[in-house]
From TrEMBL:
SUPFAM superfamilies: Homeodomain-like. The keyword Repeat does not apply. It comes from the Bacteria. It comes from Liquorilactobacillus uvarum DSM 19971. Residues 8-68 form the HTH tetR-type domain. This is Transcriptional regulator. The lineage of its organism: Bacteria, Bacillati, Bacillota, Bacilli, Lactobacillales. Keywords: DNA-binding. The keyword DNA-binding applies. Residues 31-50 bind DNA. GO terms for molecular function: DNA binding.
Amino acid sequence: MVLDKREIKTERLIETTFINILSEKDLAKVTVKEICEEALISKSTFYDHYVDKYALLDTIIQEYSRQFQTEIHERFKSVAEHNTLKVISSITQSMASHNKNLSTILKASGVDRSLESNFKKILFQESFEYFTNHEINRNFSSEFLAKMYAEIALASVSFTLTNYENTDLIKQQADFMNLLQQAMLKKI
């Protein structure tokens, strides 16, 4: 189903309004009525697009997860092309531009499928696939390397979101992650 411009604008408005409200209060305290009042839309308009606030949150989580999946996939593809720093920089810039939204969604509680668990799953799957398909490090299993990589990379994401305004720290973080990735990929 193709959405027209009005539907896209309405969904963006609802999502932006929801994230703004969610940045100020817990998910359990956010109401559809409040979202509608802030967005200046009727409840029927909200329900034309989403079943409830949890469906709205899930939609936002899925959008960020798809974007993250693409960026991480490109990062592992770039390892062979030796342009990992460029991809890390791209991911960091993308995260910095969405800092408030990502921070808010990552903090959202009361949700079975959180953005953090999706990010961790994506990081594990992409790194496991890479480590399994490339003979890189015989001292450690692909599963161990993938789990460690996912945990460290997720910490890196959190660091980026916390320190996105400090370009020196972000550059150091990108350099550190690149060194870490190179060490994991070495045939030891």
